[in-house]
Amino acid sequence: MMFGLEVRNVAVAYKGKSAIRGVSFKAGAGEIIGFIGADGAGKSSLMHAIAGVGRFSGEIVYGGETYRSPAEAEKLKQDIGLMPQGIGLVLYETLTVGEHLEFFASIRNLKRTDAFRTYRNKLLEMAGLSAFVDREAGKLSGGMMQKLSLICTLLHRPKLLILDEPTTGVDPLSRRELWEILDDIRKSEGTIILVSTAYMQEAAKMDRVYLFDSGEIIAGGSAEQLIDSVREYTYTEIPCSEKQRCFSFDKRSYSLAPLDVPHAEPTLEALFFVNALKKGYAMPKMELEARESDAPIPDIVLEAKALTKRFGEFVANDRIDMQLRAGEIVGLLGANGAGKTTFIKMLLGLYAMDGGELLLLGKPIRSGEDRRTLKAKIGYVSQHFALYKDMTVRENLLYFAQMHRIETKKALVRIRKYAEALGYRAYLDALPASLPLGINQRFSITAALLHEPVILFLDEPTSGVDTIARAQFWEIMELLKEKWGITILITTHYMSEAEYCDRVVLFKEGVKVADATVETLYKEHPEAADFEEIFMEYYR
Amino acid sequence: MRLGVVKAYILKEFAELFRTRLIVMVYLMPTMIMLLFGFGIRMNVTHARVTILDYDQSHYSRVLTSKFEDSKYFDPMVLQITEQEALRLIKQAKTEMILIIPSSFEKHLLHGQKSEIGLFIDASFPTRATTMENYVQGVILQAASEVSPQKPQSGMISINSRNLFNEAMRDENAIVPGLIGLVLLVAPAILSALLIVKEKERGTIFNFYASPIRKHEFLLAKLTPAFLLHSVNIFILFLWATWLFDVPFRGSFMLYWFSSEIYILISLGIGMLISVITRSQIAAVVLTVIVTLLPGFLYSGIILPISAMDHESYIEAHLFPVMYFNHIIYDTFLIGEGLSAATNRLYLGILVVYAVILLVLGTLFLKKELK
After folding, report:
1. What confidence score (pLDDT) does residue B163 get?
2. CATH assignment of the domain containing B139
3. Is B233 within a domain?
4. Domain end marker among B116, B147, B178
5. What's the CA gap between A94 and A75, in Å, rounded?
6. Which of B6, B199, B205, B206 has the highest number of chain A CBs within 10 A, making it the mutation to test binding with A?
7. Residue A198 CA to its chain's centroid (Å)
8. CA distances from A478 to A243, A269, A380, A473, B13 (A)
9. How do residues A442-451 score in pLDDT, each as one tens digit?
10. Which residues are bridge partners to A355 per DSSP?
């Protein structure tokens, strides 16, 4: 078989720290190759090297040409398409969708033939953006931005397409559409597609998958081969005891030593756990003490009645009713732009309400004083983990504590306690930028918990976070629910995570379309194999 | 060079400049600096408040007092108070000078004896104090010569100064042309500093890294909009100078125009170099302001002529482009020798070399890869 792309012994180092060590692999025309692995495992570095935008050692052969540096890759760039990581990263906020396509066509020096126009319109059609040609990119939803970025990257018909987490932060519906575009392109154009992803269901659809760990590829093959390799370590879920070296997540338990329960069918996520077990990575045992405050939490913590938010003509939230009860985890789901973040911002008191009523602990929120009370009772973890990157973890946490007027002495005690409980004590004096996303996520949660709120809001806390960190995240949520009995409202694009929620609320175009327990929803949709299919039902 | 590629980038830059309202800054900032500094800096003194204590009450003393009253440089108050009380006024900042005419003033003069006039000056601002002192001396000399034109004024220095090129001694003439050199150094540099680093901060720089567009195409596309937009400022600033501030223009407009365009290229080059080495917009702007505004002001010739500088400052002045440009600018406005003067030809040459070096350095330092 002729290989279109060959990566030979490629290594990348930043400031003396190695990001990728001696990686080699091959890919042929029309193949989709998946890169999976924890945050910081080196996937992006390798992609930058192959796209010719980052320095590397070793050599890369593509289309018969060999290159060892970005300068040597220059002559191949007409055939390469790179979509770097980050929602709408390569888009210009003030340019419209149509102007973007014009710009990307021009910088690739494309001839404006009829064939070009047909292809351009086909891409717009596939991305569902035909009706939005005159809309500015800054006003698109995250999913639309990613689809626009993708078609801009596809416009010059690259023969080698490199996509770095194109679907992170994108809703299941848009994700499915993105994949349809990719599948179509590789079949019609014979494009080699390299794509990294944090969604294992996506990885399962690829021709070959490489698992990255600490700068190396530690496993590779088709999804079936990889799943076969971990089948013997996968069991149905049991609570892992202290002594057993085992992990439990998403209805399964993983252990190298045999367990006394039947085996379960693994997914690609099993790779992460089995690898962690084999490498002897310690999974910190999470423990959480009860809150220091002993003020009782009433049954209904927060109640929204016909809450409405308008932006000009556009109704972002239309008369939404919702009750949040103590000791409950509520999952807020919906496509990008369905109004989830707007709703949370209204609950937080960051947006003024245009209609309806909000009650906290039975009292209506009206004045500015009410809003301050509201903020003191709420913990909030934003999409981007609002941390100060020039301060250490400890300094960051101390700053948040001081914002809530917690005495320094008391705050330091609490910080140490949480750092221990959530297993990041070793990182207290490190700068956030040097830490993996999973650790940053845990201490962002701490920052939101320091003032012992009665409600915790988390906006896409698991987007882009690797499987093990997600497992630990849900362990923390369970502990909070159990030991603190507080309300947790969480948004996510991982449909499998909905199953960890006591109740699921679904938004569609600013309207609440479902509000029920996961079991009830499964009963209402008996034909659905997983929660993603239920979600799709509402968007059909 | 593929013009279609460059054109697409240029159009994109223009669209962004207009839609992000950055265009307002392009035209507001130069005019603002011009108006602020043009009206704000005053070197000569008018309406200095002088308190006159006339202890003589004679004909001569009244002639002297009336001279002060006639002058636009002074607002005199003739008071009948003691010296102590007058000194209190100066401490309370109610007057800036005290002029004391002694009781035997006229008698002494008529007898050809030396007479001493007392003068107290508030010297909190030394340059203003020196200027005021000179004016007072001038007024007194003038009064004395009118009173006794035939009598030689022995023991008194006759000052016969003549101001060249700025005969009217107008501040505007001395300051405003220099401001053009300051403005055209600062404003284009800030804009071009933002252009590349903005894409780095946002992430859109990947479009440059990952596409076949060449470095010089990219830079040409980035600098052209800034160059064109700021070229308009050359004319706007000229209008402010000649129309609003009434500065004469004696040289060749073509020379003014051409050297200003070269000078804008230098400024863009400085901004571009900063944009290439920095990673955030805020760092780029702060660095640009420090690198351009301070030397631009110090060595513009507004505060101090370069020829009057010594050692270090003289060398420093020659390192920055503003000195060469302002030499040409002051010439075109106030003198008009133009290219017939060897210094002007040399300095214009230096500016061209300066621009070329900066643009070449920018192209060399710009890397098509992640740092």
Report:
1. 44
2. 3.40.1710.10
3. yes
4. B147
5. 31
6. B206
7. 7
8. 21, 20, 17, 9, 50
9. 889 999 999 9
10. A308
- The span from the CA of A222 to the CA of A200, in Å, is 13
B5 touches chain A (CB under 8 A): yes
Does A68 contact chain B (CB < 8 Å)?
no
Is the CB of A65 inside 8 Å of chain B's CB atoms? no
A106/B209 CB distance under 8 A = no
Amino acid code (one letter) for A137: A
Reported residue count of chain A is: 540
| Alpha-carbon span A88 to A107, nearest angstrom | 18
Clarify whether residues B58 and B37 are in a common domain. Answer: no
Give A489-537 pLDDT, tens digit per residue.
999 989 989 989 999 999 998 999 999 999 999 999 999 888 999 999 9
Last residue of a domain, one of B117, B147, B177: B147
**For residues A156 and A152, what is the distance between their CA atoms, to the nearest angstrom?**
8
Q: Which amino acid is at A169?
A: G
Which three-class secondary structure state does DSSP give residue B356? Answer: helix
* Domain A327-341+374-539 classification at class level: alpha beta
Intervals of chain B under pLDDT 50: 152, 154-164
- The verdict on B27 and B61 lying in the same domain is no
Tell me the pTM: 0.83
**H-type alpha helices, B148-214:** 171-202, 206-209
Nearest CA in chain A to B15: A95
Kindly state which CATH superfamily the domain A5-221 is placed in. Answer: P-loop containing nucleotide triphosphate hydrolases (3.40.50.300)
Tell me the sheet residues that pair with A416: none
Domain ranges in chain A are: 5-221, 227-279, 327-341+374-539
Backbone angles phi, psi at A39, to 5 degrees: -60, 130
B279 near A CB under 8 A: no
Which residue segment(s) compose the domain that B202 sits in? 3-41+169-365
| Contact status, residue A251 vs residue A236, Cβ threshold 8 Å | yes
Give the Cα separation of A174 and A59 in Å (integer).
36
Residue that the structure tokens 């720290």 belong to: A17
* Burial group, residue A426, by CB count within 10 angstroms (0-12, 13-18, 19+): exposed
Query: Residue A34 contacts by C-beta under 8 Å, 6 or more apart in sequence?
Result: A195, A196, A197, A202, A203, A206, A208, A209, A210
E runs forming strands in chain B: 48-54, 74-79, 97-101, 118-121
Taking a contact as any Cβ pair under 8 Å apart, which residues of chain A between 31 and 50 contact chain B?
A: 48
Report yes or no on B14 lying in a domain: yes
Contact B219, B363 (CB under 8 A): yes
More confident residue, A11 or A372: A11
For residue B370, being part of any structural domain is answered with: no
Which residues touch B135 (CB under 8 Å, ≥6 apart)? B45, B48, B71, B73, B74
Q: Percentage of residues in chain A with pLDDT exceeding 70?
A: 98
The reply to whether B108 and B203 lie within a common domain is: no
Number of domains in chain B: 2
Are B37 and B173 within one domain?
yes
Q: Which of A67-81, A355-369, B16-30, B148-162 has the lowest mean pLDDT?
A: B148-162
**Is B99 within 8 Å of B52 (Cβ atoms)?**
yes
Same domain, B24 and B101: no
In a shared domain, residues B264 and B291: yes
Indicate if A327-341+374-539 has the same CATH topology as A5-221: yes
For residue B157, being part of any structural domain is answered with: no
Q: Do B136 and B173 fall into the same domain? A: no
- Report the mean per-residue pLDDT for chain A: 90
Strand order in the sheet with A511-516: A378-381, A455-459, A487-491, A329-334, A503-508, A511-516
Taking contacts as CB-CB distances below 8 angstroms, the residues of chain B near A102 are 8
Same domain, B310 and B209: yes
Helices (H), A253-392: 269-279, 340-348, 368-377
